[in-house]
């Protein structure tokens, strides 16, 4: 069951009206701010109490050993873990020598609001100290989407009833004490104090700390400056130490008087630039921010977000809770990738240390579709990061005895960091997922320069992997044996349907890229014979079929396995991976997350409508959703196959994954892919968008609970608005000079310029809802319009 949310429901914000210290870690993730370069958890301004402190820079990591009971050829030797860098959020407050600490005194009021339109985290607190001094504290926190290196905080203290001496200590702190997250003592020792002090300096209201990591050799600089305003005279003091810098501001205030402070913090890191260069970089960033001023930065942030929401908003009429959750998800997707600029988009974004800060295939398969249609510049940057790690991917393929590029299952800097090879190295589908994201981006963005400089490289090197990994068998089928698909409860299987269908798409995309007129294939050293092999492999790609059950096995022999004993599996034994040996999971029909069902979506044109129906209904009773990646895909295919109420239930699960902490691990960071999946349910599920055959096609439909659903897309630079009502869909092109060609239930439609096309939606014939494993059903949502 979905628990009662701790947050107030609002279309454009997340609001918390009481402070629950037992839920601090979850709310720190929910209230996290970032821009793709900087990420700061929503810790309280004064630093304590906390659930899990966290400040992250994208790509900044420490290397650590990967332990093995037994070594093996090709095993990755080192892991990479995101580092909690210098914390610039801390602003401690003392009122007549008593520390503002919410665990003491009397907290009269406490409220926090994350505003999606302004990109700001607001906080208000009214507190009476143990010495009976009353103060009101207001703060506003920002990570700038415009000035990439800058975080800013506006902090205001008002004395309420009696005069008081107010002392503010604004700090930079490195090597904070963190809860132990690894049972490996070597890792714990390494990450408990990962930063070596190199330089510290402070003067007036400024402070700087410079550090480097001990093993990976990355260098970091963080600097702060302040702008203070108070009606009474104030004094400052400045102290710096290797791991901390502190600016102290002291003022005597009368009742009703306020001390107003703006704190500006800048970050820079590099594996190549020197500490003096980084010091100059952050100094310049602070100077630019100070020149812009607080009000100017607010205006910049609002302008950036106004433009984003103008062409990215999803409007849900009929369910305010999902409306809030979908916009929250879009905002967090934006924060994860907006200014990553050559870095990966981690599975947790920059909201927490979960998964060691690694990027997975989640990025290309879930997050990039949303960014491709709403912020293509961010999608382009993420794919350029994949291009930048091609050398490591090609080295990995060579180590494995293969050609082309084998992209890592999990990584920060490009090297494979998974110590469990059946779910890591064997999950070759990640390479096809990258190629799929490239093909989608090139279709949607229409960016020929990207294809020439980056995209074609990625398509070719990934196609070469499949040509060397697979082979033609005696009957002429192209087989890919011994791989792991998205379902991690099946491993080292032959002809995983998802992997094979995505490899086929990859091979055909590479052939198409090199078949464009005037393409100089010699640049990539691709022969006619190699292209013919790719085409032949795609044409003869094996797709298993069970004639007895009339469904496609997830992989060869999957439907012959014994079905997992769901009836005798207690709910406390989920997730199964924590309570049963993998060898038992691998030999049973039990599915962790959508796999064959994901193939029905991603390779939609490879299956008939009847096949999709039978496959979806066969795999529903086997899928336990022990992964946050599953609900959104099941929702999309439930919508396509006519199970609209079930799709609606799954949508709620995907969208509310973190706001309701459904997997009880939001404390480690947000599930960015699930949040992106909520966007996919709206657009690909109820909107019926498919882009798998080089065109846009829509088959929209609504669950009975919704009055309408409207979303915006960018296609080749043109804004398309899709408004879905129970019986009709409206397609509007905002351009004055461009049109968009699309299909509506197979009918070709030309929209624009500046026009609207209206089309009827066929009635969806109701079908009996498929069952799920006992106790694994999604929570039902209301069935009547609100």
Assign an overall shape.
Answer: globular
Rg, rounded, reads 27 Å
- Placed side by side, the strands forming the largest sheet appear as 1-9-10-11-12-19-16-15-14
Domains (count): 2
Number of helices: 17
Question: How would you characterize the overall build of this protein?
Answer:
The protein is α+β, with helices and mostly antiparallel strands and 786 residues long. It folds into 2 domains: 13-65 and 78-310, Glycoside hydrolase, family 65, N-terminal domain (Beta-galactosidase, Chain A, domain 5, Distorted Sandwich), CATH 2.70.98; 363-646, Glycosyltransferase (Alpha/alpha barrel), CATH 1.50.10. The chain is built from 17 helices and 31 strands. The model is unreliable at 185-189 (pLDDT under 50).
Any chance you could write out the topology, listing elements then pairs?
Blueprint: E1 13-16, H1 24-30, E2 33-34, E3 38-40, E4 55-57, E5 61-65, E6 78-82, E7 91-95, E8 98-99, E9 106-115, E10 120-128, E11 134-143, E12 150-159, E13 164-173, H2 185-192, E14 195-203, E15 206-213, E16 219-229, E17 234-241, E18 244-253, E19 258-270, H3 275-312, E20 314-317, H4 320-337, H5 362-374, H6 376-388, H7 390-399, H8 429-445, H9 448-469, E21 471-472, E22 478-479, H10 497-514, H11 528-539, E23 562-563, H12 582-586, E24 588-589, H13 596-602, H14 609-619, H15 630-640, H16 644-655, H17 672-686, E25 697-698, E26 708-715, E27 718-724, E28 728-733, E29 740-744, E30 747-751, E31 756-760
Parallel strand pairs: 23-24, 25-29
Antiparallel strand pairs: 1-9, 2-3, 3-4, 5-6, 7-8, 7-13, 9-10, 10-11, 11-12, 12-19, 13-18, 14-15, 15-16, 16-19, 17-18, 20-26, 21-22, 26-27, 27-28, 28-31, 29-30
